[in-house]
Write a structure and sequence with these properties.
The chain has 200 residues and is α+β, with helices and mostly antiparallel strands. It contains 6 helices and 6 strands, in the order ααβββαβααββα.
Length: 200
């Protein structure tokens, strides 16, 4: 797979090609994920924020054209104020070319960006200007079918030295969440859909 597909001249965004998107979208639909906020995943994201001290924490499921934060912890006030006095608040959905999670999904491995401005590939991403993101740490949600469902990630509005401890922690959190989701899927099969889908 080519990491950077050809882009029109002058376009700075270098979002990787995602050939697995149709299969992932079908898998997410079967799991009932990626279409609505999940309070349990919001709580999970809050725990990620507490663990890392990051301003943003997300459980992000990626479809073919957009990404959806089924779990989200974000600042109550926009951290960036534009010249016109307005700021951007992170909603539940973003286009696929926003942010760094699409890179994690395409690479199928964790991504550590201590300071996004150090990387031309990432420094021009819209989330840098719109939400003030300066650092990122994310890991893929890789399930037992070999599908990358999305990501577990944290971002901050200042550069962060995430270090090996941060990388290990985000990978462990991703593996833990996948295990929980697959356990619930197993329970649903046993109970023929009567189990509470996101209670653990």
């Amino acid at each position: 797979m080519s990491y950077d597909p050809p882009r029109p001249a002058g376009r700075l965004l270098l979002t990787p090609e995602d050939k697995e998107a149709p299969a992932r979208t079908r898998r997410l639909h079967r799991l009932g994920l990626g279409e609505r906020p999940e309070p349990t995943l919001d709580a999970f994201a809050y725990g990620l924020s507490e663990l890392t001290g990051a301003a943003y924490a997300m459980v992000n499921f990626l479809g073919e054209d957009r990404q959806f934060f089924a779990g989200l912890h974000a600042p109550a006030v926009a951290p960036v104020v534009r010249g016109d006095g307005t700021g951007a608040l992170l909603g539940r959905s973003l286009p696929r070319d926003h942010g760094f999670c699409p890179h994690v999904v395409a690479r199928r491995k964790a991504l550590v960006l201590g300071d996004v401005s150090d990387y031309p590939r990432f420094a021009g991403n819209p989330v840098v200007d719109e939400f003030g993101v300066r650092s990122y740490l994310g890991a893929p949600l890789l399930d037992s079918t070999g599908t990358v469902l999305g990501t577990v990630s944290v971002s901050d509005i200042q550069p962060r030295a995430w270090g090996q401890a941060g990388l290990t922690a985000i990978k462990e959190q991703a593996a833990d969440l996948v295990a929980r989701l697959e356990h619930l899927e197993h329970l649903e099969h046993l109970a023929h859909g009567e189990a509470d889908r996101l209670s653990w």
